[in-house]
Design goal:
By secondary structure, the chain is mainly alpha-helical. Helices cover 75% and strands 0% of the residues. Helix 3 packs antiparallel against helix 4. The chain is globular and about 75 Å long. It starts with a helix and ends with a helix. The N terminus is likely disordered.
Amino acid sequence: MSSSSSSSTPSIPSADEVKTEVVAATKSTLSGLRSLAAGGVGGVCAVLVGHPFDLGYDVGKSLVRSFSPHTSAETPFTIAQISTAGFFSAIPMTLITAPFERVKVLLQIQGQKTLAPGEKPRYANGLDVVRQLYTQGGLKSVFRGSAMTLARDGPGSAAYFATYEYMKRRMTPKDAVTGKPQGELSLSAVTVAGACAGVAMWIPVFPVDTVKSRLQSAEGRPTIGGTVRGLYANGGFRAFFPGFAPAMARAVPANAATFLGVELAHQAMNRMF
């Protein structure tokens, strides 16, 4: 009886063993939290830089509604009004995206350069880029390319939101008698609408983006006209569309996933609240 009880009694870990296990678990938890935080920050940065229009879209809609006295809060926007709101959304975000992209372009070009043995890169990091640009030319240098950024993001976001809404309305189930929307749009239809929006955004503004990138990466004091003439002299119209096919191939899944995520988030929030 006593031997049976003895064999079934679990061993109690010592204080040192408990301490070791607690330390290991703490390190594992902290590592997971760091990975989660890093991923979260990366995701937030990607949204801020890659899709800035969303942040100002509500402001754009408010402006459109204020200029449309016959449009109530319950009245759905026309496609033209949605397009206008999309354009307005890009205006305030240019102040953020223009310097961000100036830094990004310079770091990308530096990363493509092969350094000689012992040679150090010109820029240590993004903050160093801003510091050197400001030292060389002040805020004007930091914000170089802002006009071209707005020329890209304004029409681009107008086409982006207008196309998405147009495709949604076309694919939303309708009542056979009244022709009014009936039921919800399927997730597959949302994905298609998002993909179309991404393509519609890039096609008209791709040459503008090319000019913007060249302008922001050039040495000295380049002008928009000089950059355009230089591109055309080097390769004709084809020079304004470098990497067009890969960009379109990337735009389809990226924007399909973006709008799908937005719709799923809206559905989840509606269920919760």
